Structures are given as structure tokens and as C-alpha cells.
Amino acid sequence: MANVNHSTLKRVAQFAILLTLTVILLGAWTRLRDAGLGCPDWPTCYGHFTVPSSAEALARADALYPGQMVVPEKAWPETIHRYFASAIGLLILLLSTWMFAQRRATTLPWRHGLFLLALVCTQGAFGALTVTEKLYPPVVTAHLLLGFSTLTVLFLLYLRLSQAFPRTGDEGIRRIRFWVYLAVAVVVGQIMLGGWTASNYAATVCTELPICQTGWPALLQWRDAFSLTHVDDLNYEFAPHLDAASKVTIHVAHRVGAFVVVATVLMLVTQLLRKAATARYRTFAWVIAGALLIQVGLGAANVLFQLPLWNAVAHNVWAAVFLQILVALAFAVHQENNKLRG
To answer: What percent of the chain clears pLDDT 90, i.e. is strictly above it?
Structure first.
């Protein structure tokens, strides 16, 4: 019975991972289409559960939100994103409930499931706040981070259910675990900066590589760029609360963060190739190096081509995939260290 449960749950977890990646993609698409306020209310859209289109529905929308025109090109991306987000919430509810119900009969990691449920509920709350607080940047950034966190916790659940990466006894791993955990931390920090850049509409303010453009050091305004001040009833779409210098500062911070990520990850790759004794970790090294190259290329293309929609969405989604590759390595290293301590 336990094996059946694990096998079925693994398939459900796989589907949930793909669905969460889809939600991350749709979230990026919605944000980059400037459709985050395509529906002024939550969870409905102008008081409807789909985008109002009939004369009667449009009249009701106008009565509820006078002066706000329904723009289907913006309302539909937001509505579709909500449907998919609701689906992943329902799936995680079923997954965690199933594991909890069988906690005494199997070895299922039911506490992991409960944590995942709490996480996705928090994510849903921040999704609502994103609309009600009118794209307040700290809320939008937190919403993005919680989405990445949900994906990561789901992926870890799948690794646990699969009993992935059995221990190899590779003694060299003991000497590189610092770089593994540092790389994960640095990439998470860069994702935070990326979220802050996107939520403050600072992605296109720098038009040259590698840092920004001529004279950028004189424009830096760190206090305003990272201020958490909240003005009631302000619509934060297009970041009217920031001047150009503050947006340049945010973008520069993200660029500098990219250099830190590249340096840290390349050091990790070097350490893996030099000190790991097994093929598993040498393979990890080359996969991580390739994933880093793709992400750097997507980031450079965002600058060179002024944030084309398809490329910007890919940059977002690949950041999530890149993080999961590093998380898989960290999980494998954790498995090795458990044996080495024993």
C-alpha cells in the first residue's frame, strides 16, 4: 500500500510542479503585459468570474467600478492566471490532505505536505493583496518569491517521494557543500532583485551592457530605490512613486547581482569538477554551467532588444528552473552529508 501511495503521489507531485511552472509563466506574462490590474477586484473580475463581455455584464461592471473601462486584452491574462493559480491551490490541498490522512499507515512526509499547504495559502493571500494594494512593489515581489518557494517545496517533496540521489559516499562533497549552499542563497537573492526590478518597472531603464549606460554612478539613489513606504490608495502601476534615478539604481543592483551570481556559480562548477569523485556531480557541474549560460543570454537579450515579451517571460521561467537545478544538487549533497556524519 505504501508503494502505491508513493507512486501515485509522485505522479501528482510531478503534475503539480508542471502546473506551478505554468502559473509562474502566466504570472510573468500578466505582469509584462501590464495586466496586473486588468481586474480591479479579487477574486472576481469586475464582479464576474470571467471577463465581462455581454452588454448586461458590461453595464454591471460599469455600475460596480464607474470610470474604469473593461480592457479584455488586460483582463483575460489576469483571469487566466487566477484560474491556474486556483488549480494549483486545489491540487496541493488534495495532496496534503491525502498524505495527512495516511500519516499512520505509511511513511509519507505529511508534515512537508502541511507546510506546502500553508505556503500556497499564503501565496493566494498575497495574490489578493497584489490587486487590493494596487501593485505595491513589496507585495508584488513577495508574491513572486512565494511562487518560486511553492515550486521549490513541491520539487523537494517529489525528490523525497522518489528517494532521489541515493548516497554515493563521495568524500569530495564534504569540501564543496559551502559553495553549493552559497550558490542557492545568491541565486535566491538575485531572484528577489529581479522581482524588485520588475515590480518597480525598472527593467528597461538601462540600455547598455555590462552595467547600465554612461554616467550611471552619478544617478544612484539607494534610499528611494529600496524604500518600503506605502502611500494609501496610490496606484503603483508603472511606479509613479519613483524617479528615473531610483529606477536606474534598482536596475544597476540587479546587474551587479548578476555578476555575483556568475562568479559564485562558476566557482561552484569549478569545485565540483575538481573535487567530486563521481560522475553524478561532474554531470551536475556541466548542467549548472549550461543553465547559467542560458540565463545570462536571456538577461542580455532583455537589454539588447528592450524586453521582448517572449524573452522576458523565458528569463523569469528559466530562473525558476535554474533554482531547482541548484536545489536538486543541494538535496543530493544533504544526502551525502547524512551518510558521512553516520
So the answer is: 84
Q: For 80-136, what is each residue's pLDDT tens digit?
A: 999 999 999 999 999 999 999 988 877 889 999 999 999 999 999 999 999 999 999
Among 173, 142, 139, 141, which residue's Cα sits nearest to residue 274?
Answer: 173
Which residue, among 106, 42, 86, 40, has the nearest Cα to 67 in the 3D structure? 40
Chain position carrying cell 569549478: 270
Helices 72-101, 110-132: inter-axial angle, 10-degree rounding: 160
Q: Who's near 94: CB < 8 A, 6+ residues apart?
A: 12
Residue 204 has pLDDT above 80, yes or no: yes
- CA nearest neighbour of 288 among 179, 210, 163, 211: 179
Contact 171, 210 (CB under 8 A): no
In this structure, are 46 and 149 located in the same domain? yes
For residue 5, the model assigns a pLDDT of 59
Residues 122 and 180 in one domain: no
Range of the domain at 26: 1-164
| Residue 220, phi then psi, degrees to nearest 5 | -65, 130
Q: Cα 211 to the chain's mean position, in Å?
A: 24
Catalytic residues: 78
Among 119, 150, 115, residue whose Cα is nearest residue 21: 150
